[in-house]
Hints:
CATH architecture: 3-Layer(aba) Sandwich
Number of strands: 7
Radius of gyration: 19 Å
CATH superfamily: NAD(P)-binding Rossmann-like Domain
Shape: globular
CATH topology: Rossmann fold
Oligomer: single chain
Strand content: 5-15%
Distance between the termini: 50 Å
Order of helices and strands: EHEHEHEHEHEHHHEH
Bound molecules: NADP nicotinamide-adenine-dinucleotide phosphate
Structural class: alpha/beta
Amino acid sequence: MRLSGKTVLVTGASTGIGRTLALGCAHAGADIILNCHTDRAGADAAAAEIRTLGRRALVLRADLRRVKQIDRMFAAARKQFPRLDVLINNAGLTGWAGFFDTTEEKWDTVLDTNLKGTFFCSLAAARWMRDTKTPGSIVNVSTQCAELAVKNLVAYGTSKAGIHGLTKQLAVELAALGIRVNTFAPGPVNVARNLRDDPDYRRVWGAMIPLGRTAEPEEMIGPALFLASNDSSYITGQTLFVDGGWTVQGMVPASNVAKAAKKNK
Ligand SMILES: NC(=O)c1ccc[n+]([C@@H]2O[C@H](COP(=O)([O-])OP(=O)(O)OC[C@H]3O[C@@H](n4cnc5c(N)ncnc54)[C@H](OP(=O)(O)O)[C@@H]3O)[C@@H](O)[C@H]2O)c1
């Protein structure tokens, strides 16, 4: 019950990691504001589940590429909840595209959703916390692709690397108000979208990861709760990688690995 009595707003809470985090925060005692974009039914279903836990849940639709819609969402939330304790900036788009096929529209869609949306939601949340004098925590969701370049993800990787920069910037800007800003960066997670795109997702991606497997969405709850709650009260401006060891692994030729294994026999 680390978030007992707190109010948490989760963006992109209709499905995937966002839905899991919304439920995880509710299990930890929080009332939840769930943002969705196209999947209202998914967010409504998550809200219904949260209410069965005895928590409040409010669904608000907003396209986070549009600042006016973000501001309307926060205005509606402020009418229903006296304060905001935690913002989880989870909504995001991957937008796979070859480098030479990255159009202006593709670039803008990915950058506006992932980076601009994160900034303007953070701004609205920080204003709310400032006005009520109740400093809270902002938790961003990035990716290991922010640290390691991945082919065909130039817009995505750039947008998420921007979130790492924004995390430091916001942490410094908001520290005087007592508002903390941190990020966690997942590796490959078994969300419905990934499993739909590649039915062999667990095996193919899991083979590249030191822990030998992809993550379950529920494994994102612990890191999010840590950064959202007072457990991390003296941590701000940091990024925590939740990637099974992917970003600390150096590459060596496969032949070298095989040779070493033979020598050790
Ligand atoms: N899954 C992974 O392997 C993985 C790995 C690293 C990082 N991440 C990050 O984790 C976060 C969640 O990813 P996921 O895998 O759970 O994705 P997902 O299942 O595809 O869900 C994406 C969510 O983002 C919302 N969204 C997209 N565009 C939006 C917009 N313009 N305005 C408002 N909401 C919007 C969607 O809302 P609607 O459905 O309502 O349209 C949906 O709730 C993302 O930031 C992603 O980059 C995921």
